[in-house]
């Protein structure tokens, strides 16, 4: 009974989001790469969406992944501070996804891992080689990902600021570190591990956005 109720909650949410965005189920299927029959069964509460399904739904619809996890009934720990909540609950969602995945052995994921990687990329972003890597490879990486949603939109916004030099040296350095994190395929969760490989990139974008807001 509980699973059916959670599925219905997700189904109602998906119906509302599709209606708001004027998306047909067929178009939604094309954008997510999930067949129409599977989407229909999820929306009608006849099957439980996997974390992989939810990650694709969130990216396509431009909604926080954590909201879909909650709607489908996946356990998510709530945090106190709102500014940190999105990041930490996203980490909880990633942990759940890693546990359900058969392609990644290390189920332990932490924000500290991403922060450490961003710090090293920040140094690289200040070099001519790092800057050239961003300018040369960003558009191609975006095309390869072939995705939509706030994660990709924010990256494009950061890329525009970087190329136009909009910001202080500090701001451009942390923006550059995030762009390199996205471009370079071997990071905390390697990008080739589809569909989980870009979840840590989303965390990197959140961390950078938070840092920029503090300045």
Labels describing this entry:
disordered N terminus, single chain, 215 residues, 434 Repressor (Amino-terminal Domain), mainly alpha, 2 domains
User: Which ranges are low-confidence, i.e. pLDDT below 50, for 5 or more consecutive residues?
Assistant: 1-7, 77-85
Structural class: mainly alpha
Shape, per Cα inertia axes:
elongated
**β-strand number:** 0
Report the radius of gyration as a whole number of Å: 18 Å
Quote the average pLDDT: 79
Helix-strand pattern: HHHHHHHHHHH
Largest sheet: none
Count of helical regions: 11
Give the DSSP E fraction (strand runs of 2 or more residues).
under 5%
Helix content: over 70%
Distance between the termini: 48 Å
Number of domains: 2
Short synopsis of the structure:
This protein has 215 residues and is mostly helical. The protein has 11 helices and no strands. It folds into 2 domains: 2-74, 434 Repressor (Amino-terminal Domain), CATH 1.10.260; 111-214, no CATH class.
